[in-house]
Structures are given as C-alpha cells and as structure tokens.
Amino acid sequence: MHSSGLWQPLRRRDYVISARPWRAALYLLTSVPLGAATLLTLVLLAVAGSALAVVLVGLPLLLVLVLSGIPLASLERRRLRLVDSTPLTDPHREPSGTGLTAWLRTRLQERSTWRELGYALLFATVLWPLEALAVGAMLLVCGGLMATPAVMAAGDDGEAKVLKLWIADSYPEAFAVLAAGVLLLPVLAYPLGALAAGRAVLTRQLLSVPESGADSRLQELDRSRMRLVDAFEAERRRIERDLHDGAQQRLVALSMTLGLARLEGPAEPLGGLLAKAQGEADVALVEIRELIRGIHPQVLTDRGLPAAVEDIADRSPLPVDVRLDVPGRLLEAVESGVYFAVSEALANVAKHSGATRASVRGGVVSGRLAVEVEDDGQGGARLAADGREAGAADGGTGGSTGTGGGARAGTGLQGAADRLSVLGGSLLLSSPPGGPTVFRLEVPCPPARSRT
User: Is the pTM of this model over 0.85?
Assistant: First the structure.
C-alpha cells in the first residue's frame, strides 16, 4: 500500500520542476561511496576474522561482521527519507537487561539483525554497482552532449567527438548537441526517479520485518486504541469548550446582573440576599474555571507542553524548577497524557511528601519523551502490588489522595500510569526512605503531523 505512494510523484506534471529528481539523484549518488565503504569493511572483517579465528582473536571481528548490518540499516533508514517521506521505524527491541552482554544476546536473537546483515551483503555486492552504472550512464550521456562546444574549443582541429559516435565539425552543430543534452536531462529524470523509487521499495521491504497474523492483529489493536484515545481527547476538548463558552459565560452574566441589582440599593433583607447570591455565583465561577482547567487547560492547546507545565509549577504551593526540552509540538494525546501525569505527581508532592522544593526536567531521547519529577521530601512512597498507590508511613508521594500510614491511597498515579500505557509509555517510581522521590515517565513521541 505504501509502496504505490512512492510512484505517485512520477505521474505529476510538475515532477521535473520539483525537487524530487534532485533528491532521487542524491539518493542514488550517495549509495556509491556508502556501498564501496560497506564492501571494503565487510571484506576486511571477513578476511581478518577468518585468518585470526584460529587464535581466537578473530572471533570478535567475525561477531562485528555479523552485527555490521545494524549501523548500515540505521543509516539507510535515514537516507531513505530523501525519496520517502514516511519514516521506516527501527524494528529492534530494547535489551532485556543492561550491559554489552544483554545487548548482544538480544540482537543475535532478533530476526531483524540477520535481515540487515543480508541487506548489507546485497548492498555491498549488487545494489551500489548497479546504481553507479545507472547514474554514471546518465551523467556520461548528458555531460558528453553538453560539453561538446567546450571540447571543440579546446581542440586544435575544430572538431569534437560526440559520445564517440559521430563528429561535430561546426559550432552550430556543437551548440545543437548541447541543446539536445539540456533537453535530455528532464527526459532522463523519469527513469532515474523510477530507479530511486524501486530502490526505496526494496530497502523498505528488506529492512522491515514482515508482520505475522498475530502481529497484524496487535498492530490493528494498537491503532484502534490510539483512535479511542484521540476520540476521548476530542470529547474532553468539546466539554471544555462548551463549559467555557456556555456555562462560564452564563455565570459571568449572572454575577454582573446581581451586582447591578445591588447597586439599586434595595432594602434589607433583599440586599443581603443579593450579596449572598452574587458571592455564591463568584464561587461557582471560580470552581467552573478550575474544572475547565482540569478537563483540558487552554495553555496546553495554545502553547504546548513546556508552557503548560510551567503553569502547573506557578500554581504549585511549593517552588518548582522546570527544565523541559521539547522540540516543537507533540501529538495531542501525548501532550495531554504527560501533562496530567506531571500534574498528579506535583499534587502528590504538595500533599504528602513534606518536601520544600521540587523539580521537573526532561527531554526527547531516541524518539521517547522522558520526564522526571523529583522532590526533596521524606521518601518511602511505593506502588502497591495490585497497582494502586500506597502512601508510606512518612507520607511519601506515592499516594494521590491518601494520608499515609500504609493505608491504601487513591488511584491518581495509577490512572496516570494507565493513561501512559495506552500511549505505549511507562511510569517508574523511586522513593527510598529519607528521599529523594523521583517520579519518571517515558512515552513514545512521534512527530505531530496533524496534531491529532
């Protein structure tokens, strides 16, 4: 389905005057030095590893040879963006443990590692020579035609061989050949673009692991889950908008009307009743504004996650340092999930930790947004075995609404964890007795193309 999209630009009328022919040429040209370097590397590793294997020194070299497809595949996924705007995701999973041994064990057990090694061998021996031949032939033909007047001027006999096929013996003929070369460039742009598209399709097929039936069902489950999350966020925004534009405005009008009625100076007890009614309307107005902010804060919609977290910090009863490095806007579901998780964590710090200061720091690393909320409180918070928070005896941040003493607390943090898990994220809590308590969340953050 996606492969057909790579051929669509070739059918457009503006293909020749767009940047795509140049990007296709750059994609094929960069294959030549990369392929030559890959061939040289593979040959050196194979020869040196085989020769030194008898003394065991060559075994690490052979292991590097097996794993050499991984960095090449990573580079190819980035290079593919020259002709394919849809990113090719990395199929490798996170190691089950830390350290080099766990990483090697995970990589050697993955089918993707061996597919990438096969791609490296194919690329080094077949693909880049064919691409060099195609691009070289185009440059030779067009360059030879356009260079005819220069060759004639540089010669002494007033003649120039055109592609070693015929001889041009006059300048009008030489400039006619040059014009033919210029006109041939856009014609050859189409087969060059087709070659680049075919090469991109092959790369995508070889570097992406085919989905089994179960994998396809899991992928569809993930997609349907994200659709539900998007629908939920859209409904939250609709409720927030209706409250802001409807109920809140009516309360403002009611408060103003009661204030005007009080200015008329009515006799008691009507004046006292009007003052009390206006006070109740003002309290209701404050509460509905807090409710609107809790459903979906406007600052999150308008200015993004860092500004929204700064707003939480400004309203916190404790001083909170915020250092969030988030490049651009993220998906709305991601921004909303992280916002409410950080809000819940800071609320717990203020209620239960006994801290005097807190900090929020985070950024995007390897396509995942990691955010840590740390306080200098007494620590001892924990997540209960059944997933609900349990407040520690010293009142750590683990409970969302509880008061400590080991009693079961509310489900604020668990709700945040559930919300992050829907997005493919995770929540970790570190809170040794005596502190500090660190609330860490991680969530994938793909680029927000349509912000939905």
Answer: no
